[in-house]
Structure formats: structure tokens, C-alpha cells
Amino acid sequence: MWHFSRRIRQDLALFDLLEAACEGSCLSGPIWDHVLGYWNASKASPERVLFLRYEEMLRDPVGNVPFSPAEEEAGVAMDVVRLCSFDNLKDLKVNKEASDLGSSSPLGGVRESAFVNSSYFRRGQAGDWVNHMTPEMAQRLDAAMEERLRGSGFSFSG
User: Fold this and answer.
1) Which of 36, 111, 119, 155 could be 105's S-S partner, Cβ–Cβ 3.0 to 4.6 Å?
2) Which SS3 state, helix, strand or coil, does residue 148 take?
3) Neighbours of 154 (CB within 10 A)
4) Residue 158 lies in a domain
């Protein structure tokens, strides 16, 4: 989120964004509400909502998405994994050159986004936070997550 947000505000400090996230006052709203909404929907309707953590998807992309035996035998699962892979999506021409243009504006008409499509792709690796956050920042985030997620049955660690 920090790397993405810095596309608009290059001076945005990680500590400031972390505090805003922990307080639930990010531009996109409280991340906890967003995550728990999908978590709860996946528990209520697992046949309709697939909830995966990024680390789970990286570990076993084929095993985490349901395919029929016939689809797996025909190689469909591997084709989908290849086509949806981070490297493939990042390298698509539209994601290298295009902008997120044409979004509807609440005021009517079309607005131009501050983001080019390449903003949505960075490294595609889990765990990079350790290269940017101090141990104190990690503890602050852990405490906020514990408080906000308590009783839900959800944790980011799986």
C-alpha cells in the first residue's frame, strides 16, 4: 500500500501511512473492514467466495483454486496459473504503457486516474515488509491487527 500510495505523494512516510492504517483512516478506508467483509463472505458462502492470502497463492497456485479433474488433466489449471502469474500480468503491454483511465467520477463524466497501470505491480514477492519496517512498526501493526481481528477467526499468517 505504501509503494502504491507514493505514486501520488512521493513524500509519504511509511510511518505516517502505517499509523493511518492502524487507526483505520486510510484513503481506501479501514483495511480491516475490507478484509473481514470478504473473510466473512467466504465463511458464509465458500462455494461463491474464495478467500486466499497472497502467501497461500504463491505457495500453491494450482492447489488453491478448484478445477475439475478433466480441466486439470487437460492442462487448464496450469494455463490459468501461467496466464495469471505476476510476471505475465506485469509484462502485458497494457500494464506497461496504459493508464487507469476512464473511471467514472461521482460528479459525472470520466476522470483521469493518478495511476498508470504499472503502479499495480511491484515485486510480486511476499515478506518484503521486513526491508522497510522497523521492529517497532511491525509491533504496532501486529497490535492493531490483533485488536481489529479479535474474534473473527482470521489472521494474516494463515
Assistant:
1) 111
2) helix
3) 20
4) no
